[in-house]
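quick one, 330 residues, struct below
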Amino acid sequence: MDINSANVTELTEEIKKEKVVFDNIKQELSKVIVAQGSMIDSLLIGLMCDGHVLLEGVPGLAKTLTISSLSNAIEASFKRLQFTPDLLPADIIGTEIYDMKTSSFTPKKGPIFANIILADEINRSPAKVQSALLEAMQEHQVTIGDTTHSLPDVFLVLATQNPIEQEGTYPLPEAQVDRFMLKVIVNYPSKEEETEIIKRNISSERNTINPVCALENIKTIRKYVHDVYIEDRLIDYIVNIVDATRNMAKYKLPEDFIEYGASPRAGIYITKGAQANAILNGRGFVMPDDIRSILHRTLRHRISLSYEAEAESITSDAIITKIINQIEVP
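---
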């Protein structure tokens, strides 16, 4: 990618002005959300890159509250879908209703027609329902009867999984999980953060989230993501990291722990994520730290562990860390 320093400087100045939007969003969310900075940044990166996010964490970690608060802050329509074993595809995308007056069928759109969709416990529903949602994510459109309907321009699916309860669940196949740009592990708060959470919840005062920007602001910022400058050597660095998940031995890494490496989507999303992370930091160019900061979130669900790795309790995050430490930073 050829660009001169003057263009990068000019782009950085423009991005610094637009970054204020995200600063305001984070400030507004902090009124009701304690910490969870990584999760909030991931949601903002997903918004910028038109990429969907999979959240994994035990109940009670403010996943739903964060998502609904974000939709309020950006004046976006929001729908929460509680996935259950008896859910049907029509419950998500909609169906046709027979009108006796006109003797014809009219489409009744489902809750998928919103800007932000919370797919709560997505692994509670069978494959047919999961596929209906994931197809909408991929195509940005759904078909009801004979008519195809486009989804909103700003369309973000945030799906949650509960890692501690597997009875009665339908785990997402690897090919479907790959459609999520990021997989975020939501961890427990620290003792200090939990103290603040308790104090806020026993207080008689209740903060509300006010709109701090419009969807048009998000659409404007999206246009900058593709303009953020990334050097060819950094793209080569990303390619080497993705290649290392497929050919561990070539990079002097233990090759027995990965069954299947990351898909080509991984390199695309790492690059886009790094560009979006640069915007969050008010820059018009990508640095190696932008890439490294996004790697676990973009790769952990795209690596299929071998039996040997699972037997030794080796996680995909541990393997990604080994790769990061092994591949030389340009």
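The chain has two domains: 21-217, 228-326.
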